[in-house]
Design goal:
The two termini are 23 Å apart. Helix 4 packs across helix 10 and helix 6 packs antiparallel against helix 8. This protein is of the alpha+beta class. It contains ten helices and 18 strands.
């Protein structure tokens, strides 16, 4: 049987990533085409340059098509955390007698638990933190079991319709009409954390170029999600400002920084052609530490406002390219938050960088979605539900 392939478009806060791929062996991917283009990005819920964004989308779709021998029609588009909010609902449905639970009953539960009453948002994902049967067991997957009732604690990812109103016409112009919008935070979390880990709670902080997203998950759903207006690009901007240097030089400098270095005479040397510049390590480190303090304060504020009960000692997993490339940042955040902090990247021999997490999380989600739809189609053909 021919392997199914999918196409995805991931919106980072400084780069667009597009991939066409199929499932490989041992949870790896076979990439048929891959493109990445820089753009101005978004900040606090707004794209910074719509005209440029349209041009970049048109080019990246065109370039991706030129990479692939087979044309793609459907495109899975990841919606960044800034444009998504999460709603949690509980619901129980009782039946007249015991019945076998199928996807139809699960969908009915999702429909009954929450009905959207605003035009500002659209439901893009719905999934269960857990289900409950008539024996009061909490389970992850009730399909195939028999029960007189089906209850659930359900998570709904709601996308601000402004995102789709901006992006869909641009994709139409690029020749893509079949679009599936997905919460990037949900897809990334389901990919980075194994089911056993999610059953016990998992917390993820994806630090991008301009923005970060804090996510808490359990089971197959998002318990809590909050966007933070902070990214690695703001650290670069501060290096520019305080050291009076250009952005390219500051970005090169940032990649050399190790905030665990403390010798007063230490310097970071940056070469620019034949010129070599030296910057005092302690001053550079202080600039980074001050920015990390801002990030940590935002995380602490988010967790203090979180209405969901979670383990106090829950580790924080950090991904994205915003801070992990700088040595010592993970340890500094851990000390500042008084919490175990681990870096997390895709568990793949080829896609194993922090910057890979979001785009390959979306690719993984799209492949599983297509597989499930194909199974459902075959079951209908053969008369099984």
């Amino acid at each position: 049987m021919k392997k199914r392939q999918v196409a995805i478009l991931d919106f980072g806060s400084s780069k667009l990533s597009a991939i066409v791929g199929e499932q490989g062996v041992n949870n790896t991917f076979v990439v048929k085409g891959k493109r990445e283009l820089a753009y101005e990005g978004f900040f606090e819920g707004e794209f910074l340059d719509l005209e440029e964004l349209e041009q970049v989308i048109e080019k990246i779709i065109s370039d991706l098509r030129s990479d692939c021998k087979e044309p793609f029609t459907r495109l899975y588009v990841g919606i960044p955390g800034e444009f998504v909010t999460v709603v949690l609902k509980e619901k129980t449905i009782s039946y007249e007698r015991k019945k076998k639970i199928t996807q139809r009953e699960v969908n009915e539960l999702y429909d009954e638990a929450y009905r959207l009453k605003t035009n500002r948002y659209r439901i893009v994902n719905r999934s269960a933190i857990y289900f409950v049967l008539d024996d009061n067991r909490r389970i992850v997957n009730p399909i195939g079991l028999t029960s007189e009732k089906l209850g659930g604690y359900v998570s709904y990812s709601l996308a601000d319709v402004s995102f789709e109103r901006i992006i869909r016409p641009m994709l139409d112009k690029a020749g893509v009409n079949d679009v599936v919008f997905v919460s990037s935070a949900l897809a990334e979390s389901m990919y980075l954390f194994e089911p056993e880990q999610r059953d016990r709670f998992a917390m993820l902080l994806d630090v991008g170029h301009l923005t970060s997203t804090l996510v808490m998950v359990r089971g197959d759903g998002v318990l809590y999600q909050k966007s933070i207006p902070f990214g690695g690009g703001l650290i670069t901007a501060d290096l520019c400002s305080y050291l009076n240097i250009g952005y390219a030089t500051a970005d090169q400098l940032k990649r050399k920084i190790s905030i665990s270095r403390s010798a007063p005479s230490a310097v970071y040397e940056i070469s620019d052609g034949e010129e070599v510049y030296a910057f005092p390590a302690e001053k550079c480190n202080d600039i980074v530490r001050n920015n990390l303090d801002t990030l940590c304060e935002s995380v602490e504020d988010c967790l203090s406002r979180c209405e969901v009960k979670f383990p106090e000692n829950l580790p924080l997993h950090v991904t994205g390219g915003g801070v992990l490339p700088m040595r010592g940042c993970k340890e500094y955040i851990a000390n500042r938050l008084n919490r175990v902090v681990d870096g997390v990247v895709p568990n793949s021999p080829t896609e194993n960088k922090p910057t890979d997490s979001s785009k390959f999380g979306l690719l993984n989600y799209a492949l599983k979605k297509e597989e499930n739809e194909n199974v459902g189609f075959l079951q209908k053909i053969f008369g099984r539900r």
